[in-house]
Amino acid sequence: MTAPALLFSIPEYRPMADQLCRLGGLEGGDLETRDFPDGERYLRLRTAVAGRRVVILGGTVDDGATLAVYDLAYAVVRAGALSLTLVVPYFAYSTMERAEKDGEVVTAKSRARLLSSIPEAHHGNRVVLLDLHNPGLPHYFEGELTPVHRSARDIVLREARRLAEGEPFVVACTDAGRAKWVESLANDLGTTAAFVFKRRQDGGGTQVTAVSADVAGRPVIIYDDMIRTGGSLVGAARAYRDAGATRIAAIATHGIFPGEALERLRSSGLFTQIVCTDSHPRARGLADGDFLRVEPVASTLHPAICASAPSHD
Fold first, then answer.
1. Of 19, 35, 31, 22, nearest to 73 (Cα)?
2. Which phi and psi (to 5°) does residue 86 adopt?
3. Crossing angle between the packed helical segments 14-22 and 298-307, to the nearest 10 degrees
C-alpha cells in the first residue's frame, strides 16, 4: 500500500495544512520551527522524508515566508524525498510581472526563478498555484519545476449566487482589464457582465468615466482576483452605485488587506459584504463572518496536490 504524502507547512499556513490532511491522502509532517531574536528562523524536519512523497505548503506572503518555503524544499530534497510538491496559495509580486520603466525589477519572474532553482527530487518537482493575476506567470517557472495552476472559480460562482439572493444581478469588475474573466463568470451564471471605463490623470491616479452595462435597479457583485488597499474597488463601487445599483458586494480570491484597508472598505458604506478565500493568512485573521466572509480553499487545492505528488513505482 502506498504511503500518503508527507505535508510540511510554514507556521502561517498550519490551519490550511490541517484541513488538507483531513481531506485524505496526506500525512502531517513534524516540523520544528522557532524565531531567533535577530529575526533568523530555525527549521528542523522531525519526520524522516527519505523515499517519501513530500508536500511543502506556504504562500510567499513576505520575504521571510518565501525563504522558509525555499529552505524547507531544499532540505527535503537533500534528505532524499522521492518527489516534491510546493503549494503556494498566494504568489506575491504577481502584479510585478513586467517592466514598464527602465530598470524596474520583474519580481514575479525573479521569485519564480528562485523556486525553480530548488534541487530536483527523484520523481520531479511541481508547484501548485491559485488564481494568478496574469495567466502567463506559470511560464516564469523554469527547469524541472512544473507549474499547476488551479482556480477558485467554483467558490466564486457559489458565493455570487448566494450574494444575489435569487434576484437578477450583474457581475462586474474594477476595470476593463478583467472584463474577459468576468464575462466568462457571467456566462456561467447566466447573467450580465459590466466593467468601468477609466481615464488616467496627470497625478498618477485614475478617474472612472463610464459603466459598460445597465446596472440600474439590480444588485452588483464585483469580482477581482485580489483586494489589497481596495482603492480601485471603492472607485468602481461608487461608479456602480451612481449608475443605480441597488446594492454592491465584492468577491476576491486573495484578500490581502494591509494596514487599515478592510476598515476603509467597511467605512465606505458601499458594500453589503466582501468575500475572499483563505489563500492569504491575513484574511483568515480578519474574518468576522459578517462583513468579511472567508471561504476555505483547501478542497480546491487538494485534488491538484494529490495528483501532482507522484506515487511509488
1. 31
2. -85, 135
3. 70
Of 206, 117, 214, the C-alpha closest to 168 is 214
φ, ψ of residue 274 to 5 degrees: the values are -120, 135
Give CA–CA dist 20/25, Å, rounded: 9
Rounded-to-integer distance, Cα 17 and Cα 298, Å: 8
Strand partners, 171: 193, 221
For Cα atoms 113, 114, 118, give the angle at the middle one, nearest 5 degrees: 105
Q: In the block, which residue shows the cell 529575526?
A: 39
Tell me how far apart the alpha carbons of residues 239 and 206 are, in angstroms, rounded to a whole number. Answer: 13
Of the listed ranges 103-117, 130-144, 170-184, 253-267, the one predicted with least confidence: 170-184
> Given this model, what pLDDT does residue 223 score?
95
- Dmax over Cα atoms in the chain, in whole Å? 65
Decide: 45 and 31 in contact? Cβ < 8 Å. yes
pTM across the whole model: 0.92
Q: Report pLDDT for 1.
A: 57
pLDDT at residue number 178: 77
CB atoms within 10 A of CB 7: 26
At 50 the pLDDT is 97
β-bridge pairing 41-45 and 31-35 = antiparallel
Q: How far apart are CA 130 and CA 305, in angstroms?
A: 12
The answer to whether residues 212 and 201 touch, using CB atoms and an 8 Å cutoff, is no
Q: Which residues belong to the active site? A: 198
Q: Which residue has the higher pLDDT, 209 or 44?
A: 44
Please state, in angstroms and rounded to a whole number, the distance separating the CA atoms of residues 86 and 108: 16
Lowest-confidence region among 136-140, 198-202, 225-229, 260-264: 198-202
CA distance 297 to 16: 8
Q: Comparing 10-14, 39-43, 142-146, 210-214, which segment has the lowest mean pLDDT?
A: 210-214
